[in-house]
Amino acid sequence: MATFPGVDYIEIDSLFSEDELMVRQTVRDFVDEEVLPIIEHAHREEKFPMHLIPKMAEMGLFGATIHEYGLPGLNQVAYGLIMQELERGDSGLRSFASVQSGLVMYPIYTYGSKEQKDFWIPKLASGESIGCFGLTEPDFGSNPGAMRTNARRDGDSWILNGAKSWITNGSIADVAVVWAKAEGTIRGFLVEKGTPGFSTALHMGKFSLRASVTSQLFFEDCRIPAKNLLPETNGLKYPLGCLTQARYGIAWGALGSAMGVFNTAVQYSKSRIQFGGQPIASHQLVQNKLAWMITEITKGQLLALQMGRLKDQGKLKPHHVSMGKMNNVHIALECARMARDILGANGISDEYPIIRHMLNLESVKTYEGTHDIHNLIIGEAVTGIPAYNPPMSAQAEKEASERRAAEAAKK
Ligand code: TGC
Ligand code: FAD
Fold this sequence. Notes:
Elements: H1 18-45, H2 53-58, H3 76-89, H4 91-111, H5 114-125, E1 131-134, E2 150-154, E3 157-168, E4 175-182, E5 185-192, E6 198-202, E7 214-225, H6 237-271, E8 273-274, E9 278-279, H7 284-312, H8 318-342, H9 354-366, H10 371-383, H11 394-410
Parallel strand pairs: 1-4, 2-4
Antiparallel strand pairs: 2-3, 3-7, 4-5, 6-7, 8-9
Bound molecules: 3-thiaglutaryl-CoA (TGC) and flavin-adenine dinucleotide.
Flavin-adenine dinucleotide binds at residues 99, 133-136, 141-142, 166-168, 209, 214, 363, 366-368, 370, 372-373, 376, 388.
């Protein structure tokens, strides 16, 4: 298997430290040697490659930026490069690491009690335990603030009721970080596998992120010990704070997919001969696509790198991260579509990685805030005007009210 050469058009590598490059190389080798040979099969079979978890843990890929508990304490750029290389393997692999690190270890480490941290951080870092993050609900995706899942205090416990949907790792998780309205405010709970009243069901039939487990979570009078409440959480900004971590990782990760498909398209176009012996790479229309791809990848790299440097200085704002997530996923998806085109019929075969990346990126465009929600976040930063919930016209208000009345009558 040939080693991935990377994509570096304007010597961006000179902006990384030796340590950052070393981390990248370690994960790059892992992906070349252990992920690429098995990922098509995992994708076909709709299975997450569980056997890779111990190796990823051994490399320090879970909670890599944490300085305590014997973890590597890497800077944010090195963390981003890890995400980039993992996603070059498969978005599902990066998703697993994003959720474990950014959406489970981060809230426990940042908002948890000392007991919660001491118990869970080592287990999650070693891969002995797997975590998931439950925010989205069947009726509340882009607008999680309106969630229905609720928790009521009962003596030394909280009683949890509700449902979460589209939860990465949901059915394989040992601990779920679940967000619920607890007596009026949104709080985080650690729900352990096997807790009576807690069940899960797989979302089957996905044509995207097939090598990733996605589940629904159900809570029916589920009794959670009070010690499992994340004590520092008190409002929507706490789950949104976790999303900032994961979105940052996606901004880097999407570049990995883009680099993977670009590299495949260059190689293929140089060896594919049509019309009189010329490789298709010699045609201007094909070169135009490759030029667009490498230009956008290069701009995306600079955006991700600047975000990382700002994050290390404590200056990165959520609306900066929105630009990175939105732009880099968008260009990665466009690169995948162009690469698919360049490969002709072979572009739709999983003998090549392109169609898999292309389908995966459709999910990545939607999760962690859709492309359009990030547009609105940037729009709010620029204008100071939130446009998520514009006032309805009198006619639309009347129709919505009639719809609600009809639904209520049906029930
Ligand atoms: P809004 O009033 O704007 O904000 C409420 C409070 O939160 C603060 N805040 C943030 N804090 C930290 N990080 C962020 N990214 C933040 N965004 C907002 C904000 O300052 C405010 O603080 P305070 O002190 O005033 O209370 O809230 P809103 O209800 O109007 O919503 C705004 C909106 C639409 C941007 C937000 O709801 C949103 O981001 N929606 C998208 C939902 C989303 O991204 N869901 C992702 C679910 S997890 C997932 O997809 C995992 S995929 C994992 C994988 O497999 O990789
Ligand atoms: P909706 O919110 O219904 O949006 C539908 C469309 O309407 C989108 O195009 C959206 O941009 C648009 N829209 C919505 N509101 C507005 C508005 N105000 N203005 C303009 N357009 C708007 N969630 C978790 O909590 N944890 C997970 O681990 C997790 N993993 C996931 C894994 C996968 C594979 C997928 C596909 C999703 C996952 N999600 C997870 C859920 C994901 O975060 C949501 O799907 C996402 O937030 C969008 O919500 P929705 O699907 O309900 O779409």
